[in-house]
Design a protein that fits this description.
Layout (H helix, E strand, L loop, with lengths): L28 E7 L31 E6 L4 E6 L3 E5 L2 E6 L2 E9 L5 H8 L6 E11 L2 E11 L11 E11 L2 E10 L5 H9 L2 E2 L1
Parallel strand pairs: 1-2
Antiparallel strand pairs: 2-3, 3-11, 4-5, 5-6, 6-10, 7-8, 8-9, 9-10
């Protein structure tokens, strides 16, 4: 079971649109956390996010949401995430969840991504459907790529319902390392501003 503690990016969002429709206000950021992780995880063919099919469209992040700072000293990055979200993972792979909102950050050794390498990676996403990208952009002063894809959960064991996630995926690199940040939210849920804040808070250390 994930534990709630005050990582990633992801998730986080930014200077480009994230998942869902836009809100007007950005939350304040407070707090700090530190987690050590190695950078041995392989980014190649990183799978699509998986929702839990608990409900079809829940998880709006409120305008007054408090954000905490996550720092992974071993993987060499920091970013903000919403207070109260469950954090899980280590060894360069960290996930934050709340309802069916999911932010995943994976860091590993790797060359700087190119449009061709991003397209090749997307071709290995299985049943996910790419909506747009790769788009060149700048995050925290460094070049990056963004793509948008959708993916479905397995059916809920009781209700048979599936959850469709809309996911913003970012490819970032620095000093021989690559980070892939997925920020996913159920279709119909509005988390644009919160995810923009998260991805724009990403910093290499």
């Amino acid at each position: 079971m994930p534990v709630r503690v005050p990582v990633v990016v992801f998730a986080a969002a930014l200077l480009v649109a994230g998942c869902g429709s836009s809100k007007s206000s950005a939350p304040s950021a407070t707090g700090a956390g530190t987690t050590a992780a190695s950078t041995t995880t392989t980014n190649s063919a990183l799978s699509a996010l998986q929702a839990e099919a608990t409900s079809a469209a829940t998880g709006d992040i409120p305008d007054n949401q408090v954000f905490l700072g996550f720092r992974d000293a071993a993987a060499g990055y920091s970013m903000k995430y919403p207070e109260g979200w469950a954090q899980q993972g280590k060894a360069g792979r960290v996930t934050f969840r709340d309802k069916n909102n999911i932010v995943r950050v994976v860091v590993a050794a790797g060359a700087a991504p190119t449009a061709a390498s991003v397209r090749a990676d997307l071709g290995r996403l299985g049943s996910a459907h790419v909506q747009s990208g790769p788009q060149r952009l700048t995050i925290s002063g460094a070049p990056a790529f963004k793509v948008v894809y959708t993916t479905q959960s397995a059916p809920n064991a009781v209700t048979g319902k599936r959850v469709t996630l809309l996911v913003d995926r970012y490819y970032l690199s620095h000093a021989g390392k690559e980070a892939i940040v997925d920020l996913g939210t159920p279709v119909g849920v509005d988390n644009v501003d919160a995810y923009r804040l998260m991805i724009e808070s990403f910093r290499w250390r």
